[in-house]
Amino acid sequence: MNLHGFTQTMKAGGVTLGVILACSVLALAVGLERLAALWRFLDRARTLAETVKRCLYRGAVAEARAACERSTSLAAEFFLVGFERHGRSNEGALEAAVDRERQRVGLALKGHLWILATVGATAPFIGLFGTVYGILRAFEQIGATHQAGIDVVGPGIAEALVTTAAGIVVAIEAMVIYNYFMARLSRTVLELKLMSEEFVELLREQKPDPRPKSERSEKPESAQLQPIAAPVKPSPTEA
Questions:
Q1: How far is the CA of 17 from the CAs of 1, 10, 27, 144, in angstroms?
Q2: pLDDT tens string 161-214
Q3: CA spacing 20 to 30 A to 29: which of 10, 181, 220, 223?
Q4: What does the alpha-carbon distance between residue 13 and residue 146 come to, in Å, rounded to a whole number?
């Protein structure tokens, strides 16, 4: 379609077609934004989980916590909650706190996907509105001219057909993008759940003191006990 044909189509679709095209651009923008946000997210989460797991196997809780604090992955959030609660809460409260934070991370990953669902649900109805409006225009032209030729009803019928087709196409576009991300997020959330459960199990096996063993064994010199000298008894001559 050349520029002239595109201009004629836009003119035939009217304002309704402009709204539908704006919905299409919005759906694409949301899809690109979520694609950038989820790019290599799962790979970074897996790498962090493996690092934390190796540290906890060695009992290096402080090293595992430091790795989470340095990480830029959202998965580090529920790891840090677990370290904060370690030694301060019972096992049930620890598991519940980590699971709540994991669910918050899952909600953050969804972002503005609700916009895609909204566009997919409303775009056909916007096209239907354009259809009804175009037919009304056609009937108005028939009533005004008392003629029913193609030159009279053509513009209104064209608007009706163009907006209907555009609404269906945009709805398909939005729902395809939405279903792709929902399927991808379902897998991501499941893997995060497995990571959090394994993390809680390993954390329960650790001692409450998060410092490395080398630091726990060291004592300040002031705290070390000094031998007490025995009192000197006077000799018989001095007495």
A1: 17, 7, 15, 25
A2: 788 888 999 999 999 999 999 999 999 999 999 999 999 988 888 765 544 445
A3: 10
A4: 24
**Residue 32: what residue type?**
L
Of 210, 220, 226, which Cα lies nearest the Cα of 61? 210
- Cα–Cα distance between 159 and 167 in angstroms, integer? 12
Handedness of CA 151, 153, 159, 160 (dihedral sign): negative
Domain chopping of the chain, boundaries: 14-208
Question: What one-character-per-residue DSSP string does the chain give?
Answer: --HHHHHHHHHHHHHHHHHHHHHHHHHHHHHHHHHHHHTTHHHHHHHHHHHHHHHHHTT-HHHHHHHHHH--STTHHHHHHHHHHTTTS-HHHHHHHHHHHHHHHHHHHHTTHHHHHHHHHHHHHHHHHHHHHHHHHHHHHHHHHS---HHHHHHHHHHHHHHHHHHHHHHHHHHHHHHHHHHHHHHHHHHHHHHHHHHHHHHHTS-S--S-HHHHH---GGGSPPPPPPPPPPPTTT-
| Alpha carbon distance 126, 15 (integer Å) | 11
Q: Which has the higher per-residue pLDDT, 138 or 108?
A: 108
Which of the two residues, 147 and 219, has the higher pLDDT score? 147
